[in-house]
């Protein structure tokens, strides 16, 4: 009787209702009008090129490899490439230690990885995911180059967290293939995948990326193209408030402790440190232009960067 009483209380609780809502909400994210209801079939994605072997690129590559998708990791020089490959190996070892990956599957994942210093191995890829620093000219140059080399069916995705996709692809003739694939750090662990579409992104490209998201065990959420998209646009005032409090004299460690005690995995400043201050510096002008007087310009990140603290 006591168990039945407690069970009834739990089932009728607000927490239970919230969890049920989350469950069905996650299932509904893959139902996109004009994409999943028009009899399209997802194409097979066997080989993906990842441009950039930094924190995000190596995490994205790891997520693909453990799901048996071949990866070409492209970097600008041998040193960066070796570092990216080493990071991927470390990610895989971490998964083995946590018991979520066997040693045999780790060996298989490593065998699916190939390093590259140019685009010669892009001729037969099904998807490219660009994961370089948030600089518009660099991204535009990359997309103009890969458009000429990748096969016509290849999806051209960017991991940008902020930049307008129309700007990223404006120097190409492939706007229908350009799409946002915004992962969250660490990309091989965090479950969310923000899929960003423009008014010109084809339904086929969207469907294919949704399918890849499910294969690599992410929760794909399709959003529109605007500054910050959905997640970072929501996160923006949260981070702004944190920096405003610091400017008023509140200890940033106290802010992080309060947020962590509330139940968040980490506070805003620890999160920014994990992501790296280069990201914040790269996107600050984009947010300033988009939000005008609603944007609070904190000098904290610039001071950290000048002091050599990159996060």
Automatic annotation (TrEMBL):
Kindly state a single biological-process term from the GO annotations of this entry: fatty acid beta-oxidation
Domain of life (superkingdom): Eukaryota
Q: Which residues form the 3-hydroxyacyl-CoA dehydrogenase NAD binding domain?
A: 47-225
- Which residue intervals define the domain 3-hydroxyacyl-CoA dehydrogenase C-terminal in the entry? 228-311
Catalytically driven reaction(s): a 4-saturated-(3S)-3-hydroxyacyl-CoA = a (3E)-enoyl-CoA + H2O; a (3S)-3-hydroxyacyl-CoA = a (2E)-enoyl-CoA + H2O
Record's keyword terms, sorted: Isomerase, Lyase, Membrane, Multifunctional enzyme, Oxidoreductase, Transmembrane, Transmembrane helix
Cited Pfam families: 3HCDH, 3HCDH_N
Transmembrane regions listed in the UniProt entry: 48-73
Keyword Transmembrane helix belongs to the record: yes
Offer a single GO CC term for the protein.
Answer: peroxisome
| Pathway entry | Lipid metabolism; fatty acid beta-oxidation
Q: Does the keyword Lyase apply?
A: yes
Q: Which GO terms describe its molecular function?
A: (3S)-3-hydroxyacyl-CoA dehydrogenase (NAD+) activity; enoyl-CoA hydratase activity; isomerase activity; NAD+ binding
UniProt protein name: 3-hydroxyacyl-CoA dehydrogenase
Organism source for this protein? Answer: Aegilops tauschii subsp. strangulata
The organism's taxonomic lineage, starting at the top: Eukaryota, Viridiplantae, Streptophyta, Embryophyta, Tracheophyta
């Amino acid at each position: 009787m006591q168990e039945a009483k407690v069970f009834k209380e739990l089932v009728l609780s607000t927490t239970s209702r919230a969890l049920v809502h989350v469950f069905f909400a996650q299932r509904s994210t893959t139902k996109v009008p004009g994409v999943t209801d028009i009899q399209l079939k997802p194409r097979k994605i066997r080989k993906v090129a990842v441009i950039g072997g930094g924190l995000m690129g190596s995490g994205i590559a790891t997520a693909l490899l453990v799901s048996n998708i071949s990866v070409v990791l492209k970097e600008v020089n041998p040193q960066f490439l070796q570092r990216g490959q080493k990071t991927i190996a470390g990610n895989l070892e971490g998964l083995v230690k946590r018991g979520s990956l066997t040693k045999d599957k780790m060996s298989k994942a490593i065998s699916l990885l190939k390093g590259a210093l140019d685009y010669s191995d892009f001729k037969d890829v099904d998807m490219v995911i660009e994961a370089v620093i948030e600089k518009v000219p660099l991204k535009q140059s990359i997309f103009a180059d890969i458009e000429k080399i990748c096969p016509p069916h290849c999806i051209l995705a960017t991991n940008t967290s902020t930049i307008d996709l129309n700007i990223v692809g404006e120097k190409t003739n492939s706007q229908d293939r350009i799409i946002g694939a915004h992962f969250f750090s660490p990309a091989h662990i965090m479950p969310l995948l923000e899929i960003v579409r423009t008014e010109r992104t084809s339904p086929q490209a969207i469907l294919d990326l949704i399918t890849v998201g499910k294969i690599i065990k992410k929760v794909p959420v399709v959003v529109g193209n605007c500054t910050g998209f959905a997640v970072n646009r929501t996160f923006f005032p949260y981070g702004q408030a944190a920096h405003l409090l610091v400017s008023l004299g509140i200890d940033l460690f106290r802010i992080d402790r309060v947020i962590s005690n509330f139940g968040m995995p980490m506070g805003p400043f620890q999160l920014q440190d994990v992501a790296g201050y280069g990201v914040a510096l790269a996107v600050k002008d984009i947010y300033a232009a988009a939000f005008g007087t609603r944007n609070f310009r904190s000098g904290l990140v610039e001071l950290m960067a000048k002091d050599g603290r990159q996060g």
